[in-house]
Amino acid sequence: MTAETSQTLDRGLRVLKLLADTDHGLTVTELSVRLGVNRTVVYRLLATLEQHALIRRDLGGRARVGLGVLRLGRQVHPLVREAAMPALRSLAEDIGATAHLTLVDGADALAVAVVEPTWTDYHVAYRAGFRHPLGRGAAGKAILAARQHPMTDPGYTLTHGELEAGACGAAAPLLGVTGVEGSVGVVMLAEAVPERVGPRVVDAAREVAEALR
């Protein structure tokens, strides 16, 4: 800690991070041990966070992340979208296909940014706000591939006709971006994805990841 930082705020943020990393919540005693502070301090931190709906406590006294965090998280989408737009525009123009940034939203893949190419005679209409199960479509499957292989780069994922008849897609996950789980991809009307598209999508995903770090 330095003179310019707040010890209380630092501890509160550490509480949120600890709770975000567990599915079953933590007790006051467990938080006290992990933070290295006494239980009274933890009680005060939890009471303040609970007042802002950032944490909740169940009947057994275990603290969990609250719905207030989700409300804050929704405001992240515009920031992520803005950071991704240059790479998406370049990808759409280069490939001549609709490019998109997709983020995880519960059990769904949610398109938060879409760029259509300007020079093609036709392309797939794909709108921001479109959602589909993570297990269907290249965007969601790329995210799942990254989950299954967290220590390696899974490369890109290709699909055909899973979300729209006659359309195929390619997507690569965002890697190394704390707090953001998503993918960058393209969707096009074709029998198969051209060979150069997969590596180009991987490059675009890396560009977006760099912009978000």
UniProtKB/TrEMBL annotation:
<feature type="domain" description="HTH iclR-type">
    <location>
        <begin position="6"/>
        <end position="67"/>
    </location>
</feature>
<dbReference type="InterPro" id="IPR036388">
    <property type="entry name" value="WH-like_DNA-bd_sf"/>
</dbReference>
<dbReference type="Pfam" id="PF01614">
    <property type="entry name" value="IclR_C"/>
</dbReference>
<keyword id="KW-0238">DNA-binding</keyword>
<dbReference type="Pfam" id="PF09339">
    <property type="entry name" value="HTH_IclR"/>
</dbReference>
<dbReference type="InterPro" id="IPR014757">
    <property type="entry name" value="Tscrpt_reg_IclR_C"/>
</dbReference>
<dbReference type="InterPro" id="IPR029016">
    <property type="entry name" value="GAF-like_dom_sf"/>
</dbReference>
<keyword id="KW-0805">Transcription regulation</keyword>
<protein>
    <submittedName>
        <fullName>IclR family transcriptional regulator</fullName>
    </submittedName>
</protein>
<feature type="domain" description="IclR-ED">
    <location>
        <begin position="68"/>
        <end position="213"/>
    </location>
</feature>
<dbReference type="InterPro" id="IPR005471">
    <property type="entry name" value="Tscrpt_reg_IclR_N"/>
</dbReference>
<keyword id="KW-0804">Transcription</keyword>
<dbReference type="InterPro" id="IPR050707">
    <property type="entry name" value="HTH_MetabolicPath_Reg"/>
</dbReference>
<dbReference type="InterPro" id="IPR036390">
    <property type="entry name" value="WH_DNA-bd_sf"/>
</dbReference>
